[in-house]
Task: structure prediction
Amino acid sequence: MSDEQKMTLRIEYPAPWAYKIIGPDADAMKQAVADMIRDRQYTLTVSRKSETAKYTCLNLELTVESESHRLALYGALKANPCIKIVL
Result:
C-alpha cells in the first residue's frame, strides 16, 4: 500500500461531523449557523473564549449526508464574514 493510500480518509456517509468555528461575536456566529443549517438538526456549543474575550470558539456538530455536503458546508462557514476561522 502506498503512502497516499494510507493517508486517504474513508468516510461512510451519512456520518457525524464536527466543525470548530472561531469569531469575535458568538451571537452572530450562532445566527449564521442557524441561517445556513435551517431545518437540519445540529448542536452548537461554546468551546472556549480567548483570555481577552476577543474571540469565541464554537463546536458545531451535525450529520453530513455526503462529501459534497460536508465540503459545501465548510465553504459556506468559511465564506461567512462573522466567522474568521473554520477547522
About this structure: The mean pLDDT is 91. The longest helix spans residues 67-79. Residues 12-86 form a domain with the Alpha-Beta Plaits fold (CATH 3.30.70.260). Helices lie at 3-7, 26-37, 67-79.
